[in-house]
Request: fold
Amino acid sequence: MKQLLTLAIVISCAQLFAQGGISSITVVPANPTVDDEVVMYVDVQFTSGDCQLDNQDVGTNGFNVSAYAHHCVGLLTVICETTDTFEIGQLPAGDYTFDFTLTSGFGGPGCSAGIIPDDAGQLQFTVTNSVGIQDLTSASGFIYPNPTTGIISLNKSLTSHAILTNIEGQKLREFDAGAKELDLSDLPAGIYFLSTEKGRYKFVKN
Reply:
């Protein structure tokens, strides 16, 4: 009984001090249209490792998108950072609210349930009807060379996730923050779009 009590105290203390927090919420593309595959990225941080993802889910009800993620933390006293990804898909035009709830438990995957949320965050975004010329950000000076034969360079490193799509709106690649050179040599010739938090850039591959 004494050993069980000690274990319960250790678990309770771990859950008490191993709280997580939301660092940022990003929608990609930054200005989605009805033709885009919308993806939400939530950067989270925990004060204990190793913060493995236990389970997550996302659902849409009208113009409200609700999601949650539950992570497992241990006794490692290290800062653990990770990103939760939610693929929403295509949405009708309108103004949306994305609500996210973060919880954590103790142990490995299949860990204990979170008694109270670690953190909650919200992001509002708008989905427009179509991509017109006015919806595109000039790629001149940001992507070069344009046209390209395979490798494109960016004048500044990506500050967040980016998505590459073709002219039909199909998602082809995802790029992490920090990337400054993208190898697209295996893609066929055509028109492509690079969507970042700063805008949607069009370029041509020969």
About this structure: The chain has a mean pLDDT of 84. The first helix runs from residue 2 to 17.
